[in-house]
Amino acid sequence: MIKKFTLQTYFICFTLLSVSTIFLKQKPNLTFLSSNNKVSQRRLSEETQLIWRKKKKESEPKFNFEQLVLTTIVVRPDEDDSNKIRFSGSSSIKTDLDDTTAVFLRNILETDEKEDGHPVFIADLVPMNEVKNMVAGKDILFCIHGYLDEPKKALEMFKKSKGEFSTYHPIQVLWPTCDIPAGKLNLKVKKSYMHDKEMTKAVGKTLATILPMITSSSSISLMAHSMGNRVVRLFAADIKVMQVGIMFRNIFMVAADVDQDIFEKQDGVNIVRMLANDGKVYVVHRKDDTALQFSARYLNGNLIDPKNRLGQFGADLSKLHSNTEGRIKNINVLDFPVVDECCNHVYHLTNCMIWLYGSKFYLS
Q1: How much is the pTM?
Q2: Strand ranges in 11-117 using DSSP code E only, listed in sequence order
Q3: Angle (nearest 5°) at CA 154 between 210 and 283
Q4: Secondary structure class of 316 (helix, strand, coil)
């Protein structure tokens, strides 16, 4: 019985060995079939991912921003609701360089519509008397963005950082900066930049008209980033011409794209005149800001005669105008965290900067 089982076992092993040999001989064909299967599986996987991404995109909530915003961007009434307006960052909607109108908005919601590839937003229009009540008794920090900051980009960054503010109640100021796009590879950047420099004139005049109307019962400060500081310069000049009273607790000029010697001239005196008695202008700068290097050597000057920017090296405290002495403080943030590590220019809403804005010890 044992021998019979052994013979049967040998027979089974021999059969299995024969089948294995045949299998190995057929390996090229099987490998070819396996390759086809892999391609099919990969294609199926790619199609599945596309479907998943599409569903994910459809299920993602549209961008919204509920807090108060001040904007000089062109807005138009919503056809379905007279209390709402629509706006976008589309370059096809040209802004009048002499337009000095502005509105306060809240409950900004991105729609499915696009204008020239830019999202269209719908928002609630906030009456001026309601704005006065909303800001009364609060420490307000008006935040002015810089060049080429489209509405969604500016608001997304602001929304992410807003929760970090503890000292101030921040209000974003949106102004049109994309009427002329920089174009592919930034080939039109100088034309776009010069247009936005012109636009700052109307924005400055608008702020000089609007802000004194709603801030009389509030403690207010101002933070401007990059070209937003040109808005501040022109805003201050218009305040002087209009002889309007406004007092800022502090003014923060961050990565300022204005001439380095501004506080040696009347423009700097105008800015200082907007300060409360114990207020100061804080010039936040870093020398490795390559965006400002480009501005100094190409957009405002040249390689031989660069027009150094205030946000690169800060103010020269030894050359200040007599009416600005003691009111300017440089803050060097070299090696501080930035959002854009390639340029070291976008850092105005990082956590450490928000802490700095509210730091009584550091700002004293």
Answers
A1: 0.82
A2: 64-65, 69-71, 76-77, 84-88, 103-115
A3: 70
A4: coil
